[in-house]
Structure formats: C-alpha cells, structure tokens
C-alpha cells in the first residue's frame, strides 16, 4: 500500500494530466449469482454448505476483458492524477478530481445500465475497489454515495422513484448520502428520535429531527436516504412506531447542516451535522418499511459483517506494521504511512463498530441455530431419556475420535490435496463449533443476548472459519488453473489455517464454563469494582499504608 502511494507521488511530478475516457454504456455484463445467506449460518449447526463456497467463483473471459477495460484507465487516473497528500492537507477533494470521477462513471458503478449506470457485477465492483482504495477519502465518498446512499432506491424503490433519481445519481450530477445516526443513537439504530408524520392530505411526510456528524457526503449531497420513526398500522390493526426510510431532496427546503468536521483521517471526505424540518414529497423509499422488504437482510446477513471485521482489522494491522518497519521515518509526514494509518482507523468504527458487528454476527447465527435446534434443546431440558442418551453417546464418540469428515477432502472433496490437512482442521473446528453452539443455547437459553464475552468469542470463531474457507477455496482454484506462484499461495493458506485452527481451539475451550481458560467471572468482578468506583482502583506502588 505504501509503495503504491510513493509511486503515485513520483508520477504526479513527472506526468501531465490526460482526460479520462468515459466507459461505453452499451455493455452487457454477465451477472454473478445472487449472494447466499446460508453458508455462515449453517456453520453454527456444524455444517459446511460446500456448494456456496466451492469452487472459487470464476470470471468468464468476456467479463475479464471488460474488467481490464476499466482497470487501465482507472489505475492511470489514480496513480497519475489523484493527489492524496493535497486532499489530506486541504481536507477536501478538489472539484476537478470529482469531475474526473464522474467522467469515469464511478458514481454509477452499481446503478443498473437502464438508469445510466455501469451496472457492474460484484466481481468487477470489487476489482475496481482495489484501485479506488488507494485514496481513503475518495473511496469513502463513492461508497457512501452508492453502497448505502442510493442503495435503498435500487433495492426497494418503485419504478417512478428509480426513474426520477437514479440517472442523475449515476452520472454524479446528484450525490447521495445515508442518514441514520443521531446525537443519542450511534450503532443503536432502534433508538433514533427523528420522526416523520403523515400530512393531513396523506400526500407527504413532515420530517423533523437531526442527524449527527457522521453523515458522509452531507455537505455535498442533493439526495438523502433518511431514517425516521413513523406510525405504521400492523397486521393486527394496531398502530406501532416503525423505522422507515424516506427520500429527501435538499431542494425540498428545511435541510440545514453545519460546517465540515475536522477528522483524524479520510479528511477529504465530507462529513456534516444535519437537522431536518422538511415536507418530504416522497412517501417512502419503498412501498413498505425496509424491515418488511428484506432490505436489512440483504445488507446484513452474517457473512457480510464477518468480511467487514476481518478486512478492517487486517488493514489496520498491515498499515501499522508497514509504519513500524520504517521506524522513525514512518512517523514523519514526509512519507504516506502516517496518513494511511489515520485513514484506516475509521474502518473499525463506521458502518457499525466492530464490537457491534461481532454481537450481530453471533446473535444472528445463534438465532438461526436456536430455531433449528429448539425441539432438541427442549427435550434435553425436560430430561427426555432418548434424547439425553443420544447426546451422551455422541459426546462419547466425539471424545474417542478426532476424525471429522464433512466432505472437503478425498476423491470427491472440494479442496485440492495440497491443502487437505488445512481442510481437515477446518472440518474439525466447524464440527465442534456446532456442538458448542448447542451447549451454549442449552445453558443460557434466551439470556445469551446478555452474555457479551460469550458472544464475542462465538463471533471470533465464526470469522476465523469464514476466513479459512475463503483461503482454501481460492488456493484450490489457483492450483487447478495453474496460476503463477500458486505454491506460495498454498503456503500462505496453510499457515493461516493452522493459526486460525489453534486460535479456535483455545476460544472453544474458553466457552466451556468449567475450563481453566474461562475467566469470565473474574473479569466481571474486576469490571464491577471499577464501575462502582468510576476509577482505576489499585493503589500506586509508591503509596504507603498509613
């Protein structure tokens, strides 16, 4: 990452600007299949849904050619024209840079072609993201615009709303922002106070409230997806408060914002405080609230937060170690490493802090397992003899044999023999994870939602399992197609899987209530004492007892 930025700085001094060429809009891309929601949840049951992750996704030659047509001009632009040092220093993306981003079609990467966007597949979007990520401020600006800002219109908007808003959003003529967090609700979306009341003529909503500083693109956006509480008639006829997404245009009037916030990193992205006193002419982003359309489920199935946590923490570690390698030089502003460190820190915070995401990962998977295992768990609680005997017998077989076969290896296996040992480690981890989940549900029942130390460990195991599966799938594919240096990739995959395997074994042991590795009660006692005193309560070593 640092080397790429140093190359960028040299290129800036040596090469003049060449206007980027807009991509053709007459493309017809091959689409990837819809994302599965089954794989991560099934791990909680001790199962691996092989068909969801093996073999590694392939890109057709036609799509690869399309990707390469995008990659060249985009790499040229970011390495020759984007001045990340200036963006960080001035706290703003220059207007000329924004215009070039629009000319490249980057504000419409995920907008369907019929509305003037590029309609990229997930694979192509991810590939371009590798390049766009060279500048944190630009990456965040584009992501806030389309990954969340206009996403609701694509997923849940009606035809009229899509036709009205998406063409201008795709071209960059209009910019979108996503407005959820408030002064009293950050990651806790359910506690928002902004309210939308249906007008007397039933034609629009009257919106009142405020959104806090974390509204990316807030100062430059024309279209806002605003979340507010509205009164909705439930299926039983009762009236309840539910969270609804509304489309708000700046031109509606009544939208006010403060000055751009001075941030630690991604300083060129625009973040502002907003307040609302608006008559929204669009009743909703969708005919029904997002919770009813499945919008939330599309964005937040367990696999997505796993990727977010793993990637953000990996980026933070890599940048920190890159700075460390340079010693004192890495700490100097003459080099880009301190900026990269500042830019990457936000990745562990926004779009839900990693702590919140871990709770979500664990609770979503446990809820899924609970639904499947309800009958069995109830029978165990009631002391059903047959169920108890079956469970004890299974536990005895587990203790006598460490061999687990979930179908990843062998002649009909999904992985290449070069990574078979790592696949066996994954299978063993998954199997005993499923057993542990059942034990936790039996022990805690519904109160498990309060056991945050338990939930954190459950999430950490799942993140490791997800990562192990991904690297095994990729390494197996690299060997089979004969990619250069695939032996190096196999080495990396085996190292990662071995480390994750032993981490999981230790974490699984911590989830055993009677294990010596489980220090939950001691930790709770320490935290309670500190909470009561509201301070660090140990005496200083130089203090004397009077």
TrEMBL record:
Cellular localisation = Mitochondrion inner membrane
SUPFAM superfamilies attached to this UniProt entry: Acyl-CoA dehydrogenase C-terminal domain-like (SSF47203), Acyl-CoA dehydrogenase NM domain-like (SSF56645)
Q: Which GO terms describe its cellular component?
A: mitochondrial inner membrane
Acyl-CoA dehydrogenase/oxidase C-terminal domain residues: 309-362
List, for all copies, the residue spans of the domain called Acyl-CoA dehydrogenase/oxidase N-terminal.
Answer: 69-173
Q: What is the predominant subcellular site recorded for this chain?
A: mitochondrion
Superkingdom per UniProt: Eukaryota
Instruction: Name the membrane topology term.
Output: Peripheral membrane protein
Keywords in UniProt for this one?
A: Acetylation, FAD, Flavoprotein, Membrane, Mitochondrion, Mitochondrion inner membrane, Oxidoreductase, Phosphoprotein, Transit peptide
Record field: catalytic activity? oxidized [electron-transfer flavoprotein] + hexadecanoyl-CoA + H(+) = (2E)-hexadecenoyl-CoA + reduced [electron-transfer flavoprotein]; tetradecanoyl-CoA + oxidized [electron-transfer flavoprotein] + H(+) = (2E)-tetradecenoyl-CoA + reduced [electron-transfer flavoprotein]; eicosanoyl-CoA + oxidized [electron-transfer flavoprotein] + H(+) = (2E)-eicosenoyl-CoA + reduced [electron-transfer flavoprotein]; octadecanoyl-CoA + oxidized [electron-transfer flavoprotein] + H(+) = (2E)-octadecenoyl-CoA + reduced [electron-transfer flavoprotein]
* Keyword check for Phosphoprotein: yes
Taking every annotated instance into account, which residue ranges of this chain make up the domain ACAD9/ACADV-like C-terminal?
A: 417-536
Molecular-function annotations in GO: acyl-CoA dehydrogenase activity; flavin adenine dinucleotide binding
Q: Which cofactor does it need?
A: FAD
Residues covered by the Acyl-CoA oxidase/dehydrogenase middle domain: 177-271
- GO BP: fatty acid metabolic process
Hey, which family's this protein in?
Answer: Belongs to the acyl-CoA dehydrogenase family.
Protein name from the UniProt record:
Acyl-CoA dehydrogenase family member 9
Organism, by scientific name, is Canis lupus familiaris
